[in-house]
Amino acid sequence: MIVSEVTQWIEEFAPLQLQESYDNAGLLVGEPTTEVRAVLLTIDVTEAVVDEAISNNCNLIIAHHPLIFKGLKRITGKSDIERCVLKCIRHHIAVYAAHTNIDNVAKGVSGRMADLLGLQNRYILQPKTDILLKLVTFVPKLHSYAVREALFAAGAGQIGNYDSCSFNTEGIGTFRAGEEAEPFVGLQGELHSEQEVRIELILPEYLKNKVLSALLKAHPYEEPAFDFIPLKNSWNQVGAGIVGELPDEMSEMDFLLKLKNVFSLQTLRYTELSERKVRRVALCGGSGSTFLSDAIAANADVYISGDFKYHEFFDAEKRILIADIGHFESEQFTKDIFYEIITKKMPKFAVRISEIKTNPINYL
Predict the structure, then answer these.
(1) Which of 115, 109, 88, 39 is closest to 353 using CA atoms?
(2) Distance CA 95, CA 40 (A)
(3) Closest residue by Cα to residue 206 from 12, 25, 10, 5
(4) Per-residue pLDDT tens over the stretch 262-289
(5) How far apart are CA 218 and CA 227, in angstroms?
(6) Contact 200, 135 (CB under 8 A)
(7) Residues in a beta bridge with 96
(8) What is the pTM of this model?
(9) Is 326 exposed, middle or buried (0-12, 13-18, 19+ CB in 10 A)?
(10) What pLDDT, in 10s, does the model give residues 284-301?
């Protein structure tokens, strides 16, 4: 098993193309062709984590937060990041990060938080936009089934909980093959009419090359006609945060106590309590204060995230309960997601969850 094979499992779950523009997810240190002895899973890469990897013979570290986030102009060992990079290189340890890409999938960081709270009837708090394409292609009628199946297998035609979604209309296509053409039907130099099916399917932009490759391989024509049309639709399968409902409503204080217990919190910051009952919950792992307005618009009773600034608590305006559980605390179970992804593919593969406490914040 090599590094790229293991990281591919992560990317099948959380494609790198779903990361935000400011992010730096992916393979950050090491070579993709290196054979993997064992994997260490962590939220952050620190010197202590690297030492843990060395002592346990792990030569691949998979982290949530990228070790290298901003550009490094020099690596001289003057900072913790530089020392980690140097030590990983010396010991041939690869470092991979799945950050906002695993934040943006429904079963990712926020999805795991929702699991722990038992939320039902879930949907994405802020869906991504400008990420969907419509593929339109024209296929001889007798070959339309085979082409559709190839496109479905490549990932096109997935809408929510439905797959193999397409729209098909029949019509007449015309073309004239040139002297150097090798037409599948018709003759060189003669105008030809063919009974064809217009096939339309939806796909995420990051699957474009894969779907196009499948189309060209399955299509019988020498020069198939196709269009990829950008869509302005929001894609409610990916994006920031989750909204869901508790099985039963709770008082605000009872819900806060539940939060404290579920996430093993040492401290919990929250806004003024009211007589409101908590039923609809909005949440976002990490630093999610910018999505407060989305939570209010979703008519959530409470919004859970981390890293709220002092003045941002005023923005609740008694319309919603803000519960700041902390950045690390909201993301702490991401290691379990990594573990499940890898062990599902290779149950006996050597995978270790880091025992190092990487949260830089302490509470007194």
Answers:
(1) 39
(2) 10
(3) 12
(4) 999 999 999 999 999 999 999 999 999 9
(5) 16
(6) yes
(7) 27, 62
(8) 0.91
(9) buried
(10) 999 999 999 999 999 999
